[in-house]
Amino acid sequence: MGEGISDYTRFAVDLRRQMWMAGVEEELRRLIWQIAVTGKYISAKIHESNRKLAGFKNVYGEEQLSLDRSSDEIMKNQLQFSGFVREYASEEQDAVVMLGKGREKYFVTADPLDGSSLVDTNLAIGTIIGIHKESIFSRGRDSMVAALYITYGPLITMVYSAGKGAHEFVLNREGEYVLSQEHIMLEERGSIYSPGGLRKDCIEKHVRFLEYLEAEGYKLRYSGGFVPDINQVLIKRGGIFTYPALKKSPRGKLRLLFELQPMAFIIEQAGGIATDGKEEILSVRVEDLEQRCPIYIGSRFEVEKAMEFLAAGS
Ligand code: AFP
């Protein structure tokens, strides 16, 4: 080992090695690695933008795309180069984009930069990816083979699951994703809640559920970024995130394909559950790209309790 290599790197298990040891199939390993590397490029773009979400001028004075659009461009191009992706569906695109020649194995969904309204405040934001083995217009349970998210915070971390547990990696100063936690498992019951939506817009049964959590002493943890909020539930080993049905938008706010399915996949792998209040998120059939769903996701006790409250008297 040369000088300047941190101990963290010297004794670390990096992403590629961990996936190989975990028995993740080769093409899927290479695809996940490629996406994790893309996170570094998106992070560089966030730095370059200097917290401006709208189009900005780069160091050469050239006009740049908005941060969301450029993150999407970076992701799309990298996936195309990988050679493993047939179709790409992105929160930033109106339609599915054909990336391959029709024989590639994977279909990828992306929210390339989720929580972009938090960029100016310097709160954590993220990238969310779903990987499917067949058309995305299906049930997640039938089509998904892997999911991952990247958190751009004080550190860049990446959590992935390829159906063999949920694992967290930290991007170290040598630019390697090194394993920090393997087989993360949620406790049966947590102590934090992360509630989206204004209470005055929520249905009565949901408000009763929130009051129950508060009476039980759950601590409020809501940043307005889905990635850091879910990451908190996962890393603290439990609790609940919810963005419920609202009176004026019964399908809630968050998008099934780009946000909910990947997080449901990961949280289930960590022993938690994810439902729309009645049905498991991974059992909901995707009909269109824009489809939204209410969400209750986290440790088993709180999500089942939410379902009890929602079912009461109906
Ligand atoms: P932006 O990408 O527009 O910032 O939206 C973020 C988001 O989709 C998700 O990351 C948050 O959980 C949710 O919206 C926050 O919504 P509220 O602003 O209504 O709390």
In short:
The chain has 314 residues and is α+β, with helices and mostly antiparallel strands. It is built from nine helices and 13 strands.
Give a verbal description of the structure:
The protein has 314 residues and is an alpha+beta fold. It has an 8-stranded mixed sheet with strand order 2-1-3-4-5-6-7-8, sandwiched between helices. Helix content is 33%, strand content 21%. It is built from 9 helices and 13 strands. It folds into 2 domains: 5-181, Fructose-1,6-Bisphosphatase, Chain A, domain 1 (2-Layer Sandwich), CATH 3.30.540; 192-311, 3-Layer(aba) Sandwich (D-Maltodextrin-Binding Protein, domain 2), CATH 3.40.190. Helix 2 runs antiparallel to helix 3 (26-49), helix 3 (26-49) packs antiparallel against helix 4 (67-82) and helix 6 (204-215) packs across helix 9 (300-311). It is globular and about 60 Å long. Strand 6 and strand 7 form a beta hairpin. Residues 114-118, 196, 224-226, 229, 253-254 line the site of 1,6-di-O-phosphono-alpha-D-fructofuranose (AFP). Residues 114-118, 196, 224-226, 229, 253-254 line the site of 1,6-di-O-phosphono-alpha-D-fructofuranose.
Task: Detail the topology: elements first, then pairings.
Layout: H1 7-10, H2 15-21, H3 26-49, H4 67-82, E1 85-90, E2 97-98, E3 106-114, E4 125-132, H5 140-143, E5 144-152, E6 156-161, E7 167-171, E8 177-181, E9 192-195, H6 204-215, E10 219-220, H7 226-235, E11 240-243, H8 256-269, E12 273-275, E13 295-298, H9 300-311
